[in-house]
């Protein structure tokens, strides 16, 4: 017993207490109710009565030693923390550091807003490659070989045989979705697209679109109209109206161009809508049965609608931006104006 007491005393003296965790470990090991000293006190009952007094005294000394070691370490620790706190204290004489938050790019803001609006009515987001092959960008979408419709979109080809290209629209993702998944499909597909065009205030060789696709049993033109009407109201304000103008796309039949009522002049006529009261935001239509069967979906069973809108176009309308080139120039005076817009 006496030996044990001595051993514990040595341990206590040698204990390393450098931080709060070690201090707590020390307390549990020696001072706590389940610590070494408490258990030695329990053992005292087994000591022969004539030695008990002597051993009891030694035990009490050990207890005092542990407590003293604890107090001293605690004192030391609190004074060193106080020391560092004083050293790290804020220096009020320093000049302020201008710590400004960055801003999100207007195209990212609008893309997220579009995604949020469609997610609320059950669309999920899908993605596809920017380097595409002829099948997914053209052929599967019902662009006949050597058909002038291919010339509607000036393509950057990446290979001599014209089979590798930079996608000219996000419609390629429609094809990939229909090939890989079974209906019902309800997705929107935002992404970057490329066309071989001279850069000006109104055209760029790189821009963004968001594609939409809904394929199911019994999808009708009415569903398309309602969906885009809902989108237009959420995006541009509840009093926005939409109109469909007959148009042509190889991959939809019938096809339409989508206009929204000009939310700047409320249809009165202004220079944003070129006095017409309407502005175009994209194209749409019922997925052509040929496209469905090209992608392995039976057009006798399923029908679908699709649409494609320009994200730059929507952003320019929403924020009245007059030059496309601003989006890629990274002029902070332009970008900073979107501060705080979520
Ligand atoms: N891909 C067309 C373009 O880039 C836009 C488009 C029109 C997409 C009609 C569609 C659609 O999905 O149905 O001009």
Radius of gyration: 37 Å
Overall geometry: elongated
CATH topology of the largest domain: BirA Bifunctional Protein, domain 2
Topology, number of strands: 9
Bound molecules: 3,4-dihydroxyphenylalanine
Q: Report the major sheet.
A: 7 strands, mixed
How helix-rich are the residues, as a percent range? 40-55%
Numbering strands along the chain, what is their spatial order in the largest sheet? 1-4-5-9-8-7-6
Number of domains: 2
Overall mean confidence score, pLDDT: 91
Strand content bin: 15-25%
H and E string:
HHHHHEEHEHEEHEEEHEHHH
The CATH architecture name of the largest domain reads: 2-Layer Sandwich
Any key phrases for this structure?
342 residues; alpha+beta; BirA Bifunctional Protein, domain 2; 2 domains; 7-stranded mixed sheet; two-stranded antiparallel ribbon; 9 strands; elongated; binds 3,4-dihydroxyphenylalanine; Phenylalanyl-tRNA_Synthase; magnesium; ATP-binding
Question: Helices, strands, pairings?
Answer:
Layout: H1 2-14, H2 20-31, H3 36-43, H4 49-88, H5 106-119, E1 124-125, E2 131-133, H6 134-137, E3 164-166, H7 171-180, E4 185-194, E5 206-216, H8 221-236, E6 242-249, E7 252-261, E8 278-287, H9 289-294, E9 303-310, H10 311-319, H11 326-329, H12 332-335
Parallel strand pairs: 1-4
Antiparallel strand pairs: 2-3, 4-5, 5-9, 6-7, 7-8, 8-9
The structure holds 3,4-dihydroxyphenylalanine.
